[in-house]
Amino acid sequence: MNGFLLIDKPQGQTSADCVYTLRNILNTKKIGHCGTLDPIATGMLPICIGEGTKFSNYISNHSKKYEVTVLFGIETDSGDITGKEISKNSSEITENDLKEALSSFEGEIKQTPPMHSAIKFQGKPLYKWVRAGIYLKRDERNVSISKLEIKSFVGNTEAVIRVSCSKGTYIRSLVESIGKKINTIATIKELRRISVGEFKEEDLTLLESKEKSFYQQNLINLDQALKGLPKILLDNIEVKKIRNGQKLDYNAREQIEGIVRLYEKEGFFIGLGNIDSSKRVSAKRLLATK
Questions:
Q1: What CATH number labels 68-189?
Q2: What is the sign, positive or negative, of the torsion defined by CA atoms of 157, 158, 163, 168?
Q3: Looking at domain 3-62+198-224, does it have CATH number 2.60.40.10?
Q4: Helix (H) or strand (E) holding 12
Q5: What is the pTM of this model?
Q6: Which residues, at least 6 apart from 24, have a Cβ–Cβ distance to it below 8 Å?
Q7: 249 catalytic residue (yes or no)
Q8: How confident is the model over 81-123, as pLDDT tens digits?
Q9: Of the listed 8, 38, 80, 223, which one is catalytic?
Protein backbone atom coordinates (compact mmCIF):
# COMPACT_ATOMS: atom_id res chain seq x y z
CA MET A 1 0.00 0.00 0.00
CA ASN A 2 1.73 3.13 -1.28
CA GLY A 3 0.29 6.64 -1.41
CA PHE A 4 -1.44 9.28 0.71
CA LEU A 5 -4.59 9.58 2.78
CA LEU A 6 -6.10 12.97 3.57
CA ILE A 7 -7.49 12.34 7.03
CA ASP A 8 -10.04 14.65 8.64
CA LYS A 9 -8.34 14.79 12.03
CA PRO A 10 -10.81 14.68 14.93
CA GLN A 11 -10.57 17.32 17.66
CA GLY A 12 -8.72 16.19 20.75
CA GLN A 13 -6.48 13.69 18.97
CA THR A 14 -2.83 14.37 18.22
CA SER A 15 -1.42 13.87 14.74
CA ALA A 16 0.58 10.96 16.15
CA ASP A 17 -2.64 9.39 17.49
CA CYS A 18 -4.01 9.31 13.93
CA VAL A 19 -0.84 7.66 12.64
CA TYR A 20 -0.91 5.00 15.38
CA THR A 21 -4.57 4.23 14.66
CA LEU A 22 -3.93 3.79 10.94
CA ARG A 23 -0.72 1.83 11.54
CA ASN A 24 -2.74 -0.81 13.36
CA ILE A 25 -5.63 -0.88 10.86
CA LEU A 26 -3.36 -1.00 7.79
CA ASN A 27 -0.82 -3.29 9.46
CA THR A 28 2.16 -1.26 8.27
CA LYS A 29 5.14 0.33 9.97
CA LYS A 30 5.98 2.60 7.04
CA ILE A 31 3.56 5.43 7.77
CA GLY A 32 3.74 9.03 8.98
CA HIS A 33 2.05 12.42 8.77
CA CYS A 34 2.99 15.43 6.67
CA GLY A 35 2.81 18.39 9.05
CA THR A 36 1.51 18.42 12.61
CA LEU A 37 -1.92 19.65 13.64
CA ASP A 38 -2.51 20.67 17.27
CA PRO A 39 -4.93 18.51 19.30
CA ILE A 40 -7.51 21.35 19.31
CA ALA A 41 -7.41 21.51 15.49
CA THR A 42 -9.50 19.50 13.06
CA GLY A 43 -9.24 19.07 9.34
CA MET A 44 -6.72 18.05 6.74
CA LEU A 45 -3.88 15.84 7.95
CA PRO A 46 -2.00 14.24 5.03
CA ILE A 47 -0.80 10.74 5.91
CA CYS A 48 2.00 9.15 3.87
CA ILE A 49 2.07 5.37 3.52
CA GLY A 50 4.70 2.98 2.16
CA GLU A 51 6.67 4.60 -0.66
CA GLY A 52 4.70 7.78 0.02
CA THR A 53 6.96 8.42 3.02
CA LYS A 54 9.73 9.30 0.56
CA PHE A 55 7.73 12.31 -0.61
CA SER A 56 6.30 13.62 2.68
CA ASN A 57 8.38 16.82 2.58
CA TYR A 58 6.96 17.77 -0.81
CA ILE A 59 3.44 17.57 0.61
CA SER A 60 4.18 19.33 3.91
CA ASN A 61 5.89 22.19 2.03
CA HIS A 62 2.61 23.17 0.33
CA SER A 63 0.72 26.31 1.33
CA LYS A 64 -2.15 25.87 3.81
CA LYS A 65 -5.60 27.32 4.45
CA TYR A 66 -7.25 27.46 7.87
CA GLU A 67 -10.49 28.67 9.33
CA VAL A 68 -9.98 29.91 12.87
CA THR A 69 -12.64 31.04 15.33
CA VAL A 70 -11.16 33.82 17.45
CA LEU A 71 -12.38 34.96 20.87
CA PHE A 72 -11.51 38.57 21.71
CA GLY A 73 -11.03 39.80 25.26
CA ILE A 74 -9.51 36.55 26.53
CA GLU A 75 -5.87 35.46 26.84
CA THR A 76 -4.71 31.97 27.85
CA ASP A 77 -1.30 30.51 28.56
CA SER A 78 -1.57 28.21 25.52
CA GLY A 79 -3.11 30.62 23.01
CA ASP A 80 -6.32 28.59 22.78
CA ILE A 81 -9.31 27.83 24.99
CA THR A 82 -7.79 24.60 26.29
CA GLY A 83 -5.25 26.63 28.25
CA LYS A 84 -5.46 28.45 31.58
CA GLU A 85 -7.06 31.88 31.41
CA ILE A 86 -4.48 34.50 32.37
CA SER A 87 -6.21 37.71 31.33
CA LYS A 88 -9.63 39.05 30.42
CA ASN A 89 -11.01 42.39 29.30
CA SER A 90 -14.01 43.97 27.62
CA SER A 91 -13.05 44.29 23.97
CA GLU A 92 -14.63 47.16 22.06
CA ILE A 93 -13.78 46.44 18.44
CA THR A 94 -15.65 46.77 15.17
CA GLU A 95 -15.51 44.64 12.06
CA ASN A 96 -13.76 47.51 10.31
CA ASP A 97 -11.09 47.59 13.04
CA LEU A 98 -10.50 43.90 12.42
CA LYS A 99 -10.34 44.31 8.63
CA GLU A 100 -7.70 47.01 8.94
CA ALA A 101 -5.67 44.90 11.35
CA LEU A 102 -5.81 41.85 9.10
CA SER A 103 -4.54 43.76 6.08
CA SER A 104 -1.39 44.68 8.02
CA PHE A 105 -0.46 41.00 8.40
CA GLU A 106 -0.70 40.09 4.73
CA GLY A 107 2.64 39.50 3.04
CA GLU A 108 5.96 38.47 4.57
CA ILE A 109 5.96 38.69 8.37
CA LYS A 110 8.11 37.51 11.26
CA GLN A 111 6.73 35.17 13.92
CA THR A 112 8.10 33.81 17.17
CA PRO A 113 6.97 30.19 17.54
CA PRO A 114 4.74 29.68 20.60
CA MET A 115 5.92 27.47 23.45
CA HIS A 116 2.82 25.35 22.87
CA SER A 117 4.12 23.95 19.57
CA ALA A 118 5.71 20.78 18.22
CA ILE A 119 9.10 22.38 17.50
CA LYS A 120 11.75 20.25 19.15
CA PHE A 121 14.54 21.35 21.49
CA GLN A 122 17.01 18.64 22.52
CA GLY A 123 14.70 16.06 21.01
CA LYS A 124 11.64 17.13 23.00
CA PRO A 125 8.68 19.22 21.69
CA LEU A 126 8.39 22.69 23.17
CA TYR A 127 4.96 21.94 24.64
CA LYS A 128 6.54 19.25 26.84
CA TRP A 129 9.09 21.76 28.14
CA VAL A 130 6.36 24.24 29.04
CA ARG A 131 4.40 21.52 30.85
CA ALA A 132 7.47 21.15 33.05
CA GLY A 133 7.42 24.90 33.70
CA ILE A 134 10.38 25.64 31.44
CA TYR A 135 10.13 28.48 28.91
CA LEU A 136 12.82 28.66 26.23
CA LYS A 137 14.04 31.43 23.93
CA ARG A 138 12.75 30.96 20.37
CA ASP A 139 14.14 32.64 17.27
CA GLU A 140 11.85 34.58 14.96
CA ARG A 141 10.90 32.96 11.67
CA ASN A 142 9.83 34.41 8.34
CA VAL A 143 6.42 33.26 7.13
CA SER A 144 4.08 34.43 4.38
CA ILE A 145 0.38 35.29 4.74
CA SER A 146 -1.17 35.52 1.27
CA LYS A 147 -4.73 36.34 2.38
CA LEU A 148 -6.82 36.99 5.50
CA GLU A 149 -10.60 37.08 5.21
CA ILE A 150 -13.36 37.64 7.75
CA LYS A 151 -15.98 34.90 7.29
CA SER A 152 -18.18 36.05 10.18
CA PHE A 153 -18.13 38.66 12.94
CA VAL A 154 -20.24 38.33 16.10
CA GLY A 155 -20.61 41.55 18.06
CA ASN A 156 -17.19 42.54 19.32
CA THR A 157 -16.30 39.22 20.92
CA GLU A 158 -15.88 36.59 18.21
CA ALA A 159 -14.89 36.24 14.55
CA VAL A 160 -14.18 33.47 12.05
CA ILE A 161 -11.13 34.25 9.92
CA ARG A 162 -9.85 32.34 6.90
CA VAL A 163 -6.05 32.27 6.73
CA SER A 164 -4.10 31.43 3.56
CA CYS A 165 -0.46 31.02 4.49
CA SER A 166 2.88 29.34 3.96
CA LYS A 167 4.21 26.27 5.68
CA GLY A 168 5.38 26.99 9.23
CA THR A 169 2.83 29.69 10.05
CA TYR A 170 1.66 29.54 13.68
CA ILE A 171 -2.01 30.41 13.83
CA ARG A 172 -2.09 30.89 17.61
CA SER A 173 0.79 33.40 17.34
CA LEU A 174 -1.03 35.15 14.50
CA VAL A 175 -4.25 35.37 16.52
CA GLU A 176 -2.46 36.86 19.53
CA SER A 177 -0.72 39.39 17.27
CA ILE A 178 -4.04 40.38 15.68
CA GLY A 179 -5.46 40.98 19.16
CA LYS A 180 -2.57 43.25 20.07
CA LYS A 181 -2.94 45.15 16.80
CA ILE A 182 -6.50 46.16 17.74
CA ASN A 183 -5.56 46.93 21.36
CA THR A 184 -7.12 43.88 22.94
CA ILE A 185 -6.29 40.23 23.65
CA ALA A 186 -7.37 37.16 21.69
CA THR A 187 -7.28 33.39 21.75
CA ILE A 188 -8.32 30.47 19.53
CA LYS A 189 -11.73 28.90 20.12
CA GLU A 190 -11.70 26.53 17.12
CA LEU A 191 -9.20 25.79 14.37
CA ARG A 192 -9.66 23.81 11.16
CA ARG A 193 -7.23 23.21 8.31
CA ILE A 194 -9.30 23.26 5.13
CA SER A 195 -6.65 22.75 2.45
CA VAL A 196 -3.06 21.75 1.79
CA GLY A 197 -1.78 22.80 -1.62
CA GLU A 198 -4.35 21.74 -4.22
CA PHE A 199 -6.14 19.33 -1.88
CA LYS A 200 -9.58 20.51 -0.69
CA GLU A 201 -12.05 19.48 2.00
CA GLU A 202 -13.99 17.26 -0.43
CA ASP A 203 -10.86 15.06 -0.64
CA LEU A 204 -10.95 14.27 3.10
CA THR A 205 -11.39 10.79 4.60
CA LEU A 206 -13.00 10.39 8.02
CA LEU A 207 -11.04 8.40 10.59
CA GLU A 208 -14.02 6.26 11.54
CA SER A 209 -13.75 2.89 9.85
CA LYS A 210 -11.72 -0.02 11.24
CA GLU A 211 -11.62 -1.73 7.83
CA LYS A 212 -8.41 -1.64 5.78
CA SER A 213 -10.40 -1.80 2.53
CA PHE A 214 -12.10 1.52 3.32
CA TYR A 215 -8.76 3.36 3.42
CA GLN A 216 -7.47 1.50 0.36
CA GLN A 217 -10.44 2.85 -1.58
CA ASN A 218 -9.62 6.41 -0.48
CA LEU A 219 -5.87 6.18 -1.12
CA ILE A 220 -4.41 8.91 -3.35
CA ASN A 221 -1.66 7.52 -5.56
CA LEU A 222 1.79 9.06 -5.53
CA ASP A 223 1.85 10.90 -8.84
CA GLN A 224 -1.66 12.30 -8.26
CA ALA A 225 -0.57 13.67 -4.88
CA LEU A 226 2.37 15.40 -6.59
CA LYS A 227 0.43 16.56 -9.67
CA GLY A 228 1.29 20.22 -9.04
CA LEU A 229 4.85 19.51 -10.21
CA PRO A 230 5.85 19.51 -13.91
CA LYS A 231 6.10 16.13 -15.64
CA ILE A 232 8.78 14.76 -17.99
CA LEU A 233 9.04 11.45 -19.86
CA LEU A 234 12.24 9.41 -20.01
CA ASP A 235 13.13 6.59 -22.36
CA ASN A 236 14.39 3.24 -21.05
CA ILE A 237 18.07 4.17 -21.34
CA GLU A 238 17.50 7.45 -19.49
CA VAL A 239 15.58 5.67 -16.73
CA LYS A 240 18.48 3.27 -16.25
CA LYS A 241 20.97 6.15 -16.06
CA ILE A 242 18.83 8.05 -13.54
CA ARG A 243 18.52 4.95 -11.36
CA ASN A 244 22.30 4.55 -11.50
CA GLY A 245 22.81 8.09 -10.21
CA GLN A 246 23.80 9.66 -13.52
CA LYS A 247 22.67 13.06 -14.78
CA LEU A 248 20.84 13.50 -18.07
CA ASP A 249 21.00 16.32 -20.62
CA TYR A 250 17.62 18.01 -21.08
CA ASN A 251 18.67 20.88 -23.30
CA ALA A 252 16.48 20.19 -26.31
CA ARG A 253 13.15 19.96 -24.47
CA GLU A 254 10.75 22.21 -22.58
CA GLN A 255 12.10 25.15 -20.60
CA ILE A 256 11.59 23.61 -17.16
CA GLU A 257 13.77 24.13 -14.10
CA GLY A 258 13.45 22.77 -10.55
CA ILE A 259 11.64 19.73 -9.15
CA VAL A 260 9.82 17.55 -11.70
CA ARG A 261 7.93 14.25 -11.78
CA LEU A 262 9.75 11.53 -13.70
CA TYR A 263 7.90 8.97 -15.83
CA GLU A 264 8.90 6.05 -17.99
CA LYS A 265 7.72 6.34 -21.58
CA GLU A 266 5.00 3.77 -20.78
CA GLY A 267 3.57 6.31 -18.36
CA PHE A 268 4.71 4.76 -15.07
CA PHE A 269 5.73 7.22 -12.34
CA ILE A 270 9.26 6.48 -11.05
CA GLY A 271 9.90 9.41 -8.70
CA LEU A 272 11.08 13.00 -8.53
CA GLY A 273 14.03 14.63 -10.20
CA ASN A 274 15.60 18.06 -10.44
CA ILE A 275 16.46 20.06 -13.55
CA ASP A 276 19.31 22.47 -12.80
CA SER A 277 20.20 25.75 -14.50
CA SER A 278 22.40 23.92 -17.00
CA LYS A 279 19.38 21.80 -18.05
CA ARG A 280 20.69 18.61 -16.50
CA VAL A 281 18.29 16.17 -14.83
CA SER A 282 19.24 14.32 -11.65
CA ALA A 283 17.29 12.06 -9.30
CA LYS A 284 15.84 13.45 -6.05
CA ARG A 285 13.60 10.67 -4.70
CA LEU A 286 12.93 7.48 -6.66
CA LEU A 287 10.51 4.64 -6.08
CA ALA A 288 12.00 1.27 -5.27
CA THR A 289 12.20 -1.08 -8.23
CA LYS A 290 10.00 -4.16 -8.06
A1: 3.30.2350.10
A2: positive
A3: no
A4: none
A5: 0.90
A6: none
A7: no
A8: 998 999 999 878 999 999 999 999 999 999 988 777 777 778 8
A9: 38
